[in-house]
Amino acid sequence: MANVFSFKGFTPVIHESAFIHPNATVTGNVIIGKDVYVGPGAALRGDWGRIEIGDGCNIQENCTIHMFPGKTVVLEPSAHIGHGAIIHGGILKRNCLIGMNAVVMDDAIVGEESIVGALTFVPAGMDIPRRSLVVGNPAKIIKQVSDEMITWKTKGTQLYQALPGECYESLKATEPLREEEKDRPSQDSLFATWNSIKEI
User: Fold this and answer.
1) Where would a tag sit more exposed on the chain, N or C end, judged by fewer CB atoms within 10 A?
2) Where are the domains of the chain?
3) Which fold has domain 3-144?
4) DSSP labels for the chain?
């Protein structure tokens, strides 16, 4: 059972196909669409404003989504938020990717199909155009996202869009084994890192 809390009369709305990990927390005025994955340790805190999570988004482990009072955070469909990222009052357009431990600040807009690199700091009010590759602190646009790059990103997001159903089917609390089984299966290589397929 997920940690879901109402706050000042606002109860989160979560589509039945979305999966919120039991160790994630969703509070207040939060709207979550279809096939959304929210990983353990993530905090979506809609106490002072509204959070809209579009269909097919993923919010990975230890991410934080929050805002200043009266603001709305929007993740359009298929936005992909890497481990440990912070979204504070930003707007993320369709099919963008926010890298691990990146920070997107208030009133920033990350354009459709843009990629924000790991550890990047996107300052308040920055408007990142569609299909931009952004890195650094503060963030700088270094090139355009190619068709190959967005195809790679989209494939990774599709794995996360399938994950809610897989979690409902097979994730369960359990006691650990005390030794590894002799016939423990290997796991399929479903997705490759960008650098292993193409240098940026």
Assistant:
1) N
2) 3-144
3) UDP N-Acetylglucosamine Acyltransferase; domain 1 (2.160.10)
4) --EEE-BTTB--EE-TT-EE-TT-EEEEEEEE-TT-EE-TT-EEEEEEEEEEE-TT-EE-TT-EEE-STT-EEEE-TT-EE-TT-EEES-EE-TT-EE-TT-EE-TT-EEPTT-EE-TT-EE-TT-EEPTTEEEETTTTEEEEEPPHHHHHHHHHHHHHHHHHHHHHHHH----PPPSS--TTPPP-------HHHH---
